[in-house]
Amino acid sequence: MALAERLDLRFAARARRITSLEEGESMSQAVEVNGRRRRQDSGKPSLRTKKTRSLSSQERRFAFWLLLPTLIGLSAILLYPSIQTILWSFQHYILTDPLNHSYGLGNYRQLIHDHIFWMAFRFTIFYAVLSVIGQTLVGLGVALMANREFKGRGIFRAALLFPWMMPTVITAVVWRFMYDPNYGLFDGVLQRLGLPHAFVWLGSPTLAVIALFLLAIWKVNSFAALVFLAGLQSIPASVYEAADVDGANPWQRFWRITMPMLKPTILVVLVLRTVEALQAFDIIYGLTLGGPGYSTLNLPLYLYQQSIQGLNFGYGSAIGVVLAIMIALFALLYMKILYRPDSLG
Amino acid sequence: MTTTSNAPSRKRVRVKSPNPAKASRRHGWARARMGIFNLSAIILGFYALFPVIWILITSLKPQAQLTTQPVTLLPTSVTLGSYRTALSQAPFGRYYFNSLLVTVTSTVFSLTLGTFAGYALARLRFRFKRLILMVILAFSFLPPITLVVPLFNLFRHFNLLNTYWALIIPYTFLTLPICVWLMNAYLQDLPKELEEAAKVDGLSTLGAFFRIILRVSVPGVVTTGLIIFATNWNEFLLALTFMTNNQMRTLPVGIALYPGQYTFPWGIISAATVLALVPVALGVSVFQRRLISGLTLGAVK
């Protein structure tokens, strides 16, 4: 990495000079230049630890002040509302109803008997699993492609950023437009090709779910591809050369080298995408609003309907707690992958 | 650090078949494979791009061609009428201003706090570092959908709904964990001799941070800033919930709720969408390479 380019030249030069010196030498120099001759003059062997200690306490105080606003802000804006959600889930709390009282497990008992909740619950998992699998598979294919050398590779890679760049809700609105049975792009293409057309894509439960998956895969696969691409490029070429010497065919090369070496990356993408897919709101809001019927309603959308539209904060909070537990399971999995003892350092 | 792919050269190096007929057959197969490869690259590239191209085409079509059946794939004439309508008739100009104000402010706040915290975690020595870093990361997993109702209540209490603060505050802190994470990863990679050099120069820890670290971390700040900007620029849920006054809406909400007012104003919506893409697209085109490494860093490291 061409680090020196990034550094201010003056400091780079100085840094190089210091690394070339003995550590002790640079320390004494530092003491001198800092004008703390007093300490150097005392000349005791313990002086260096004393200096280190005073420096590190200065560092600790500095670190404390640097971290303080972040930790306070995160607690106030993210932690406090989360706790409130948990508390509300045990309350009968409807904004339009002045009788706000403790409700015990009432909201949860209501949830168990709410068949719309169970439909949304099932769809949330179904959507997360299928869309993430689709995004990962297509993304992997795109990444393997973008890793080859061909003309226009730069443009190909730049094109991959477009779906990521667009606001999710707007992509959903645009796709709704493309799915339009009269003036939509898909219908127009089918009609021109002389194929059956005029499907009311978003009007039938099955077609709406398919339409949602096509959009979801489009929206995220290219991002997954970019992450995979970085993973592919970190596999050293020498490994492949060694495999060639041993006479491995492309198939073996893929399954014995590429896949095992890409496994951590794939795992991370799977977990992170699942966490995101469990929370999908914009995409469904923009495309189907949970319809037709309840066929594409997921938990975030149901929570929104209950809390924001129905102003039933207690019930909505109970849905939120269920959703947060599902997400927390995957988040813990992610942290576990991330903090393998061998990857520390 | 771009390790260039050497897949084609690898293939060429492979042992040639002594049988010429077999060799030529292999040559033919290689060409066919190349063809298949190019074709699928084109198809996938097209899959990634066609909605964007379609929006662009739609935004440039004259009104009459928007409602033909079957739909006209290429417009016979090009007009900027939809753009003019979007900016004058519909309040998209106002939405644009709201989005820019909220996004820029919250991005600057988040970057400032995130650089401070990321620096402390990456380069200063103190206890419970790993724990703090993990707690901050855990914050990034709190689902915004479960925060939206308590925040709604909080902002209602302080009369902040339908003010810019109702979005600036949560945007700042929702993106802060990932900002800290990225800046921490970036600053860790800088050589530790930087601070030592600063001390030689008589700078305190504080001085080293402001005079040196901040200056050399500009590329990291830019990449992180772009990711945060894009996240906030595209945010929908909070903007939908906290800004109920039409004049205060941001672009994504304004565009998403617009179809409710008339039937099929697709030309206007497409024009607004193209305009909404501009800031992020500009940033991406300038910092593309860095952005990709930043995105992957955030996802993998």
The fraction of residues assigned to DSSP E strands of chain A is under 5%
Total of helices of chain A: 16
Radius of gyration of chain A, CA atoms, in whole angstroms: 29 Å
Strand order across the largest sheet of chain A? 1-2
Poorly predicted runs of 5 or more residues of chain B: 1-17
First-to-last CA distance of chain B:
16 Å
Largest interface: A-B, 129 and 123 residues
Total number of beta strands of chain A: 2
What number is the mean pLDDT of chain A? 76
Number of helices of chain B: 14
Percent helix of chain A: over 70%
The helical percent of chain B reads over 70%
Radius of gyration of chain B: 26 Å
- The ordered string of helix (H) and strand (E) elements of chain B is HHHHHHHHHHHHHH
Shape of chain A: globular
Class by SSE composition of chain B:
mainly alpha
